[in-house]
TrEMBL record:
PANTHER family, per database record: HALOACID DEHALOGENASE-LIKE HYDROLASE, SUPERFAMILY HYDROLASE, PUTATIVE (AFU_ORTHOLOGUE AFUA_4G13290)-RELATED
Organism: Karstenula rhodostoma CBS 690.94
MF GO annotations: phosphatase activity
InterPro entries the UniProt entry points to: HAD-like_sf, HAD-SF_hydro_IA, HAD_2, HAD_sf
Transmembrane segments: none
Protein name per its UniProtKB record: HAD-like protein
CDD domains noted in UniProt: HAD_like (cd01427)
Amino acid sequence: MAPRRFAPLDPAKRGKGDERPVLKGVVFDVDGTLCLPQNYMFAEMRSALGITKATDILDHVYSLPPAEQDEAQEKIRAVERKAMASQRPQAGLVQLMDYLDSRSIKKGICTRNFDAPVDHLLTTFLPKHLFHPIITREFRPPKPDPAGILHIAKAWMHENGGESLIMVGDSVDDMVAGRRAGAATVLLESEANGHLKGHECTDLVVGQLDELIRVLEEGFEGRDVGGEGKT
């Protein structure tokens, strides 16, 4: 697969005859991407549900009889509500969002969180910034299925799926969903996800969010990677 590329957002750096596509929007994950990771939540959720680390939390919930799903959802929502109080923004968060607004780049969210933690983060740390659409746990199927990202692309009237977009996240679900949607992918590196730097679905790696400003100004150049989103 050819490396993903976008033309520089700085017009002065866009040479005559530059045929690279123009970036139209960026989709963000939430936990571990817009805010610092709160990975302890997953162990607490699995404990509340009585499942092991090998079992995907949402897959387990959706596998339950309908009458039991609401109770299971409330158990994991309770963990997320408790964690909201300790949410902290990622380094460079506001700077990147200000930059994207200055370049008229649309911003969306695709997360496996439920609405309350997302609303809390946006109202607390990004009150002046618009994200639309916001895809949360209520949307099915969740990542790593590309449906959420494709829904955002359609809402933005893009006829080429996610090919005009970048998906920014910190998990394999983010990378795989982005690749399957046709989007370029950016991994926000952390102590927990270094193994994804070389993943076949990861196009670019950054250490903090505002590193993307220079990348987008000068032109996005992804790695030469292959594969069809296998994990």
